[in-house]
Sequence to fold (347 residues):
Amino acid sequence: MEYLKATKKQCEDYNSIVSVAEKYDGISTTQWAEVIEIEGLFYIPFNEKYPSELTKVRELPIVDVDI
Amino acid sequence: MIGTKLGIYSQKGAEIPLLLDLFPNAESAYALDKLRNAYTGSCIRVRRSSDNAELDIGFVGNNFDTASLLTFVGAGNGFVSKRYDQSANSFDLLQASAANQPQIVSSGSIVTESGYSMIDYDGANSSMETASGLNFGTSSRSVFIVQKSDATGNGSRLALNSSYTPSNAWIITPEIAIRTGSTTWVTSTPTSTTNISLISNIYLGGNLFAGNSMWLDGDVVSRTSGTDGTPNTLNTPMFEGLHGALYFNGKADLTVVYKSDQTANLTAINNFIKTKYGIS
Fold:
């Protein structure tokens, strides 16, 4: 899955566009995706049915995580 | 035929005892088969890709209703938006974001492993979580997990308590390991990437090195590394398939969690599950 890299607002707007168009049931499934924040940058999964001029990345950046 | 999975045949009219009939009082329990005879709810809620409609899928007898699932999904894909908790506690696993839902039907066929229906976690996006925490605190716990790993790293198969902030969890990984932040209990005995595995975990309290034990397919596994200490006690939601940014890559079915010490029943529970899934 590819991701869009953009501002938080742009990611939220993309999520809204997809969510409205896909007509999820609104009960169990309420949206396309959560906006992902990694080290101050924002990403959202790209949906191939909804083209975007935003920057696409193939993978999310890997960060060191203490688990 | 009911009973063939277990190799158990009941006398006419008699109920076949299921896992939670024999070993009750689970804190939460999920599987693509019925886990106790008295359970009357659904198994999963599925979203189909063709129009995003959703439907609860239940059981036929004690078995997952695959016919209804396939009829509903059709030739497309089916994704799981809810795994219903078959214990009495309603800790359903949820995923409200379409892009993050694990998959149960692919191009009109149920995801399977060795003939058993499974839920596919992609190792990149998919996860589910409870709406609230199970509040384990420092209590003992016994966990039984059936899965087929596609990778054996530190992706979180199950996090009893988790957080988007790392270092706050009790996570079980295919390594096999328990990771609770800076405290870890790690083996050199990873799960198979070709067969279904059973991971069993019992924690009796206190420091991790002394209080934790794990089994793979019913055989005890030894800790080979880690950092001793006490687990955290956050009361945060339970996650299946994710902790922090570490996703489980593989297929999942049974997940049963007790907030109690099941040492006395360990062998019997392991053998019951191994028989059901054909684990040797």
User: Anything to note?
Assistant: The radius of gyration of chain A is 13 Å. Helices of chain A lie at 8-22. The longest strand of chain A covers residues 41-45.
